[in-house]
Specification:
The structure holds three protein chains of three kinds.
Chain A (H helix, E strand, L loop, with lengths): L10 H13 L7 H12 L4 H11 L3 H8 L13 E6 L2 H5 L2 H12 L5 E2 L5 E6 L11 E3 L2 E3 L4 H12 L8
Parallel strand pairs in A: 1-3
Antiparallel strand pairs in A: 1-4, 2-3, 4-5
Chain B lengths: L2 E6 L2 E6 L4 H7 L23 E4 L6 E2 L10 E3 L3 H17 L14 H9 L16 E2 L4 E3 L9 H9 L5 E4 L6 E4 L20 H5 L5 E3 L12 E6 L8 E9 L2 E8 L13 H5 L14 E3 L5 E3 L2 H19 L4 E5 L5 H15 L4 E3 L5 H7 L12 H4 L2 E5 L3 H4 L1 H13 L3 E6 L11 E4 L5 H8 L6 H4 L3 H12 L4 E5 L5 H12 L5 E4 L6 H6 L6 E2 L3 E2 L19 H9 L5 E5 L3 H4 L11 E6 L11 E4 L8 E4 L4 E5 L4 E2 L5 H11 L4 H4 L21 H10 L11 H11 L7 H5 L4 E2 L29 H4 L3 H11 L15
Parallel strand pairs in B: 1-5, 16-17, 16-25, 18-19, 18-21, 19-20, 21-22, 25-26, 26-27
Antiparallel strand pairs in B: 1-2, 3-4, 3-5, 6-7, 7-10, 8-9, 11-12, 12-13, 13-30, 14-15, 14-27, 23-24, 28-29, 29-31
Chain C lengths: L24 H6 L4 H8 L1 H16 L11 H6 L10 E6 L8 H8 L1 H15 L3 E6 L4 H16 L15 E6 L9 H8 L23 E5 H13 L1 H7 L7 E8 L5 E6 L2 E2 H8 L9 E5 L8 E2 L6 E2 L1 H6 L8 E6 L4 H15 L5 H21 L2 H14 L6 H16 L1 H10 L9 H5 L4
Helix pairs in contact in C: 2-6, 2-9, 3-6, 3-10, 5-6, 6-9, 13-14, 13-16, 14-15, 14-16, 15-16
The chains are: A alpha+beta, B alpha/beta, C alpha/beta.
């Protein structure tokens, strides 16, 4: 049973949040992880997510919005089921990051922060994801894919489209 | 802390250790520029304008975060520092719209001043500026994002200063933006709004024109106004508000209220009413001609001469025919001390009656009597900022006395003041309280009795008896306790509480009332049983120089009861609306000759035989006394053709009644020397010189319309009003301690006549109804579900 | 999955357990895991803290996050007694472009981070440690979470660790995408559930840190080094490196090299050799143009400036920094104009916006370089970029401003001619693209 009546989250996530707010010296510390975990489940940080997290943490909704808008992984609009994040920062750029990005744009027919019509993929150009020595790299949701070529990207997209991609959460 | 010595720009300076360099420099006359630094709010070090060079430090340091230390050597203006500041300004100006010619802040803008000083006028950016549309966050707060330089003063002012937290910072980097608490997507009109107390402190703090006021924006330029520092007419705190005044075809119009020089008793603070609710003065429904009721019942405009003749004749006839005790007088809690004093003197000596009263918003009579014979036991508003411990019993300063609430919050935040709150409601200041005691509904009497030692009252005072006794023990252990008392405590209860407080050697008291001069009205004797300074009628020698009837008169309710019984021949009402306030049956006044001095056709004025159009507190000079007993000067700011001050009208009526003018207003007595001829070389400083002359009683009071002639008498006769003239005339506040003279008068069986105003943040008695801005704010508030921050029910009238 | 690499010149201390499945706690124990912390406890409650700090000081270990502050000294700054609880905070918010070493540590040896956290806790008298990973490292967070759970299951964490009578807990935490949170005080803000904006210093974290308590904040690699140092001894570790730069460190070599990867090399190892020998030289036989030696914030070295030892002091003398150990190699085909633009775009995106010089400075440099790159530049723009960067240096609230200004200054000073040629070489009549088109609306 969740501590919050009418929680918008699944019982598992609500349960996890109930625990999370108790482990820190100050419960507000749970805010950033909760925003991300809520986004993982809901797809984005909706107004309802903001309201419930504010309630859980005794914060003003404004506080939650202030924090939420600071972190680049958090979004307030839905994305595709698989959010393709292409790193174009220096190490990836030197090894073809922009070619990968262009290939993704072309293949998916969408641009930066856009979603395919079927809602399966969205695309994002991101800053360094910490895979510099295995560049060029992308993340699909939380999964890393490294040493990419356009051909490998095609294989990946097919895999995800067929529902065979890993989907770490 | 101990003083340290350090060198700034070659000058040896001294300051207590720990003082911030920027403050230490400022108090020695060295101004270090800063956008984000705001004294009393948390430190930011964000704007980088206050960078200075400190010896032995590798980089430039921010003066706003560096405490002075012994032997520190600092340079505040070098080519290196000037370049750093110039570069910062260039960066800001890159995106700042240079719309200074139309910007409200033009002429009062810190960015403008800094650009002028450091010369960052050249731009080398080819890219267009980011443009965003202006946003209306509330009827009084507008946000122009491109002008914002992100100093975060508004965010801190709203959060730390006001405890409202309606503004935040969103996004990051160059997309960072100040965001209000109602985002566009959650707003019915899809525009962002701010849900807050609408105090406007964010606008005050804004160094540029990013936040502007709904009442003032695009109306005029700062240099086109005269700026008059006077006292706000609304609540009992008596904050200084600076009114920006501009000439119009029928007088001079107030176009802005703000806290321009922060020199008043309110320090940095001004609430929404002090800032915006001056607009009743410009209301088009103001009465500007005397009106006399015709036989057919209609009110007809007449000349002043006709109206005053008529009033004088009628009052004289009724006094002579039915005696002074057939006449009632009701005064105001928004007129000056001089007017209040004159009114009671007029009632007692010209009308020959003690039937005089006013709308009491707190029981100052019992307060004065409970403190009879005590010295230095009353607190000034300033004490709320510094007292190490404060107890609030009753009241809700956040709504009722916002300046008091601001001081208390500041005290708790910056001086670690300990706040104790005992209230039957969860008032907002409990959030700052070290301890909050929830009293039972109507439990104040029992609480006072419990404190005074009556253990049996405990269960009536609060449900949690343990909390109650812990609370009492804690406050008893305080050595210097400031006890702020709400208007809920009256008569014996008030006395019991004060008696308890008096057992604490360092305790001081204040009684919170509503309206600018509620305290002054009581101090000046607008009371049927008390002369000015709470002097008893019986055996009075203080006011022996003029005759007063010796028997107590009718109080406010008795006056109307008498009218209902046909025993009241005339009623003279000055700036009050008792008909609505006390629910008087209009029929009861049908046989009474009613004269009302008013700005508007209020319910009371509507029943009058004669209405005399009155000036308000912003259109006259004199003095007022706030809830705490702090005396301040009121200066004439606005003007409206056709209206007259209450002072002048009382004098003219007395004259028409054939009274001895020299006896009523001792004019012409002050002249001892200097008719202005000594100004000579100082003529350029005429104002200051005239203040000095007046203060030293050298200025002639040539006419009976000069309030200072009455001030002389107040100063001479009213106990406790031994004021310092220069202090008053220079616009400073001074704490007065009028208390009933010993021997102690029995506090007691008197009827409870206190009727608190119950104003919200957006109402101000009858007057508030004529403020468009307050109406707009009430409407704005009604659009949203209540947040508990403000109560929106309008006051009883 | 990251590919593990090796080279005979490597000195494997920290990476000793890489590739051996040490994320499994039993495997970790088999490979001398949790011995170091027990050795420390064996010193007895009186001597333990002093012993750890002495060994750490003797090791010459300097912070692996980039600033290079001596770790032992940092730990010794924490007051012995404190009214508020003390904390250990592990910075795994690895975000400096070119840097992916902590990635490998969390993947291959998560228990070393946990054990290091415990050691730091024992050294300063803290009972609670936090391991903060950047939000993108979700799969690594799960590995670390599993490792923490396993350590609790064995009784290594929690009450009375290893019979010492001391309690120690570890909480793992995820970020949500913000480079600035890698700055230690911004990290504390983020961990307290706030915007990742840095705090005013002083007070320093060792005195007033997380939740107002004294706090030691170390990079994950620094923390993971601690158990190894306790096991081998401070002096032995110090000897592996160069003067005043003890031990070894993980260098991530990326960009145009034949064998990119994370290599553990002794401090002071020659940069040229690292590129040409360890990483197999320039990819596809091209010529070297430049090297960004320690993550994107470090001033660039030209091809003839790389005969230099990889330690904090030698790199400083060479006019750049050792930084985070991320060596990014650029071959002759790279346009420095484009590279400079990509670098400043990153810092512009990541500036927290708190102070004016960083917020506005990164933005104007990016806008100007964008225009230059797209063909609307003039010679004056190069001066302007340099002026902007020079006026950011040392004037910002936190080091991010310097991190943006330093590489920019490096590029425009060392490759000024390339910028000027680039601008001059634009074909006449090249359409000038407006900034709106480039940056897009809403940015």
């Amino acid at each position: 049973m969740s501590e919050i009546a009418n929680t918008i989250f699944s019982p598992e996530l609500a349960d996890r949040f109930d625990k999370l707010v108790t482990i820190y010296p100050l419960k507000r510390s749970a805010l950033v992880p909760m925003l991300l975990y809520a986004q993982d489940e809901v797809g984005y940080v909706s107004d309802a997510v903001v309201a419930e997290l504010a309630e859980r943490l005794d914060l003003l909704e404004l506080d939650v919005r202030n924090v939420l808008s600071y972190y680049s992984m958090l979004r307030t609009k839905p994305a595709g089921r698989y959010n393709v994040q292409v790193c174009t920062n220096i190490s990836c750029m030197l090894r073809g990051g922009y070619e990968i990005l262009d290939h993704c744009k072309h293949t998916l027919g969408i641009g930066h922060k856009e979603t395919t019509k079927d809602g399966v993929f969205s695309l994002e150009e991101v800053e360094c994801i910490g895979a510099c020595c295995w560049a060029p790299a992308i993340q699909v949701n939380y999964d890393f894919h490294e040493n990419l070529t356009p051909a490998k990207v095609d294989v990946l997209f097919k895999m995800y489209r067929d529902g065979k991609g890993k989907d770490e959460k | 802390m101990a003083d340290v010595k350090f060198i700034v720009d070659g000058k040896q300076l001294t300051a207590p250790a720990g003082t911030l360099l920027i403050d230490a420099c400022k108090s020695s006359g060295i101004e270090i520029p800063a956008f984000c630094y705001y004294p009393g709010l948390s430190l930011q070090a964000a704007c980088r304008m206050c960078v200075v060079r400190i010896e032995k430090m590798p980089k430039l340091q921010t003066a706003c975060t560096t405490p002075v230390t012994e032997g520190m050597v600092v340079a505040t203006e070098t080519p290196e520092i000037a370049q750093a500041r110039k570069a910062t300004l260039q960066l800001l100006l890159g995106n700042h719209p240079l719309d200074c010619p139309v910007c409200d802040a033009g002429g009062e803008c810190e960015l403008q001043d800094m650009t002028f000083k450091y010369g960052a006028a050249d731009s080398f950016y080819a890219e267009p500026k980011n443009h965003r549309e202006e946003q209306k966050w509330s009827p009084v707060v507008y946000f122009d994002r491109p002008r914002c330089i992100l100093c975060y003063r508004c965010v801190r002012m709203c959060g730390e200063g006001m405890d409202v937290f309606a503004l935040g910072i969103q996004n990051r980097g160059s997309s960072s933006v100040i965001a209000p608490n109602i985002p566009a997507e959650l707003s019915p009109d899809h525009l962002a709004h701010v849900d807050c107390e609408q105090c406007g402190m964010c606008i005050d703090a804004c160094p540029v024109g990013a936040l502007t006021s709904g009442t003032y924006r695009y109306k005029t330029r700062p240099w086109e106004m005269n700026h008059v520092g006077t006292v706000c007419t609304h609540c009992g705190d008596g904050c200084k508000t600076t009114l920006g005044v501009r000439s119009t075809s029928d007088g001079s119009e107030i176009v802005r209220g703000d806290n321009r020089d922060k020199s008043g008793i309110n320090g940095d603070f001004l609430c929404n009413k002090g800032r915006y609710a001056f607009d009743f003065a410009n209301n088009e429904n103001r009465i500007t001609q005397p009106l006399v009721r015709q036989p057919n019942g209609e009110l007809k405009p007449v000349s002043w001469e006709v109206a005053l003749d008529y009033v004088g004749k009628e009052l004289r006839q009724r006094r002579d025919a039915r005696g002074g005790k057939s006449i009632g007088v009701i005064g105001s809690n928004r007129i000056t001390n001089e007017e209040a004093y004159l009114l009671q003197k007029f009632a007692r000596t010209v009308l020959g009656t003690n039937n005089i009263d006013h709308h009491r918003t707190a029981d100052y009579v019992s307060f004065a009597q409970a403190l009879a014979g005590q010295k230095d036991r009353t607190a000034s508003l300033r004490d709320t900022l510094t007292a190490p411990a404060i107890l609030i019993v009753g009241g809700d300063p956040t709504i009722q006395a916002p300046g008091t609430a601001w001081n208390i919050r500041t005290n708790v935040r910056n001086n670690r003041g300990r706040l104790y709150v005992a209230n039957s409601a969860e008032i907002k200041l409990r959030r700052q309280a070290k301890s909050f005691l929830r009293l039972a509904p109507f439990g104040y009497s029992a609480f006072a009795s419990y404190l005074a030692g009556n253990a049996a009252s405990a269960s009536e005072a609060a449900t949690d008896i343990n909390a109650l006794s812990t609370f009492r023990d804690t406050i008893k252990a305080e050595e210097k306790l400031l006890i702020l008392i709400g208007s809920e405590l009256r008569g014996q209860d008030l006395k019991a509480l004060i008696d308890f407080g008096l057992t604490i050697p360092g305790a001081k008291f204040a009684l919170i009332s509503d309206y600018a001069n509620s305290r002054g009205a009581a101090d000046m004797g607008l009371l049927p049983d008390m002369l000015p300074g709470y002097t008893p009628l019986a055996g009075n020698t203080t006011f022996a120089e003029y005759d007063t009837p010796s028997a107590p008169g009718l109080d406010l309710l008795e006056i109307f009861e008498a009218a209902g019984k046909g025993e009241l021949s005339a009623l003279y009402v000055v700036g009050s609306n008792p008909v609505t306030r006390y629910g008087i049956d209009p029929e009861s006044l049908k046989d009474t000759f009613v004269v009302v001095q008013e700005m508007f056709l209020t319910e009371t004025a509507a029943l009058a035989d004669v209405i005399l159009p009155a000036a308000n507190l912003y259109e006259k000079s004199g003095s007022v006394t706030n809830s705490y007993g702090d005396l301040q000067l009121v200066k004439k700011a606005g003007d409206r053709a056709g209206v007259r001050s209450d002072f002048e009208m009382i004098v003219r009526i007395a004259d028409k009644m054939g009274a001895n003018m020299q006896a009523l207003v001792p004019f012409g007595k002050g002249t001892r020397a200097d008719m202005g001829q000594s100004r000579g070389a100082q003529s350029g400083e005429a104002d200051r010189h005239s203040v000095w002359l007046t203060a030293n009683n050298l200025e002639p009071k040539l006419s009976p319309f000069d309030p200072f002639a009455i001030l002389d008498e107040i100063q001479r006769l009213v106990p406790g009003y031994n004021l310092l003239r220069l202090q008053l005339l220079s616009g400073n506040d001074q704490h007065l301690q009028p208390a009933a003279p010993a021997p102690l008068v029995q506090v007691g069986s008197r009827r409870d006549l206190v009727l608190p105003a119950n104003d919200s943040l957006f109402t101000s008695g009858t007057l508030g109804r004529y403020s468009t801005m307050l109406s707009d704010l009430q409407h704005n508030e009604s659009l949203r579900p209540p947040t508990g921050l403000t109560q929106i029910e309008t006051a009883a009238d | 999955m990251p590919t593990l690499v090796s080279h005979p010149d490597e000195v494997r201390v920290l990476s000793r357990r890489f590739g051996q499945g040490a994320a499994n706690i039993d495997k970790y124990i088999e490979l001398d895991g949790y011995k170091a912390v027990q050795n420390a406890i064996a010193q007895g409650p009186e001597k333990m803290a002093g012993w750890i700090i002495d060994v750490m000081k003797a090791s010459g270990l300097r912070g692996r996050g980039g600033a290079g502050f001596p770790t032992g000294m940092k730990w010794s700054f924490v007051p012995k007694t404190s009214e508020k609880p003390k904390y250990v905070l592990v910075n795994g918010d690895e975000s400096e472009p070119g840097t992916c070493k902590d990635h490998v540590i969390f993947l291959e040896d998560p228990h070393a981070v946990i054990e290091g956290t415990m050691i730091a806790g024992l050294a300063i008298g803290s009972k609670l440690g936090f391991i903060y990973l950047r939000g993108e490292y979700r799969y690594l967070l799960k590995i670390v979470e599993k490792a923490v759970a396993d350590a609790y299951a064995k009784g290594f964490l929690g009450k009375n660790i290893f019979g010492s009578g001391i309690d120690f807990d570890v909480i793992t935490q995820t970020g949500a995408g913000a480079y600035e949170v890698g700055e230690e005080s911004a990290l504390m803000e983020s961990l307290e559930g706030k915007r990742g904006v840095p705090r005013i210093k002083p007070p320093f974290p060792a005195v007033v840190g997380l939740y107002g308590g004294p706090t030691v904040i170390n990079n994950a690699e620094t923390i993971a080094s601690a158990p190894h140092i306790l096991l081998m001894g401070g002096e032995a570790y110090a000897k592996l490196g160069s003067e005043r730069n003890g031990g070894t460190r993980l260098f991530g070599i990326s960009g145009h090299v034949e064998r990119p990867g994370v290599y553990e090399l002794p401090m002071g190892y020659n940069l040229k050799r690292a590129i040409y020998e360890v990483a197999g030289g320039i990819k596809d036989g091209k010529k070297l143009k430049a090297v960004v030696p320690g993550g994107a914030s470090c001033p660039v070295l030209t091809a003839d400036e790389i005969d230099v030892g990889l330690d904090f002091d030698q790199m400083g003398k060479a006019g750049t920094m050792l930084g985070s150990g991320g060596i990014v190699v650029l071959d002759e085909t790279v346009s420095i104009v484009e590279f400079a633009l990509r670098t400043i775009s990153f810092y512009q995106h990541e500036s927290c916006g708190w102070c004016i010089p960083c917020r506005e400075g990164t933005d104007w440099i990016k806008k100007t370089l964008t225009r230059v790159y797209n063909g609307g530049g003039s010679k004056k723009d190069v001066d302007n970029v340099q002026y902007l960067a020079e006026n950011m240096m040392g004037r910002t609230f936190c080091p991010l401003g310097d991190a943006a200004a330093m590489p920019t200054l490096g590029f425009v000073k060392k490759f000024r001619k390339e910028f000027e040629d680039y601008i001059a070489g634009q074909k006449a009549g090249t359409p000038i693209i407006t900034v709106e088109q480039l940056v897009g609306a809403g940015h």
